[in-house]
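Quick illustration, no need to memorize.
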Amino acid sequence: MLVYTALIPSVYLCGYVQLQYLCEHGFVEFEAKRFADITKDDVLRADIVLFIRNDSLQDVWLAKQCRKAGKYLIYVLDDDLLNVPSYISSARYYQNPSVREQIKQMMSLCDCFMSPSEVLLAKYGKRFSRVFRVIEPSVMQVTEITPHQDGRVHIGFAGSADRGKDLDEILGGAIETVIRKYPERVIVEIFGPETELSKRLELKTYPYLDAYSEYQSLMKELHWDIGLAPMPDSAFHRCKHCNKLVEYAGFGIVGIYSDVIPYSNAVEDGVTGLLCEDTENAWTAAISRLVEDGVLRKSMQENCLRLAGETYSIERTAMELLEQLQQCGTSRQPESNLPLYTLQKLWIRAVCLGKRVWLAVLKRTLWKIKR
């Protein structure tokens, strides 16, 4: 059973897609559920329970119930949620002392730690009896590359809504130079964040989509030739996964990646992408190289499709996950059959709702006092 709050990309890529594949092919029985929908029978029926980025009081309570019932618990992170930088939009939430404490409690309750990041596995692995790496798949894969009818080279950046600062600081000057250098030859688009760059240069932008299937469909429709993947060199970002390589490769997009972990460990420079120092001159040179050399670009596009189909296929990543799950212990003796599960669940939901209501009232009161 996979427990999620919302079906965000992290949930899809760090377990949902692979487990759904294994279920459809008869290897496992699998259910993915939100906290509100999980019944006592769901808990008792499961052998292994996965919590992906779960951090609430309700999640902690559910993890405790699962332990009482003798289940094997896996905690999954694809970001260092205990060290989110202050400039990222979600920092205020994750720096909340109660949220931090709940994340730590989730870690203490779970048997195993799973992550696509080797850095995260090394950082938090000692808190668990077992760790293993989950490989994120290329969920949507194109089979061939078709040229654009307008004859232009289409360049794009795709990312979450809070990536605007990275884009402005790392790529601002380079993109402006490239557009000035090739005014009739390139089209640059931004998918996800709002940036000063896109406003200044009047770039075509697409708002971030919460539904991952819609996001994938639009990415396929955009059909970029070159994908940009800037990444700051910080302790937080080194804990991330090379998800842009995985995603771009599936669409046959040649990526240009900051030459920092996680991309420096995953990209074969000049073969499956270009690694680039985070300077304006380096990014300008890398983009110009791919714009001007269509033969190289086509060769690298084919390499990307092979990488997605072989290393990052859903089948391969699912079977690797199954191999790891088969080594997980499921023999803990149950302490209880959870006789008061429903009553306690109603109580914990009421407590969480009450906290939200009182916080809203407090904020409103403080706002009135301030006025």
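The chain has a mean pLDDT of 93.
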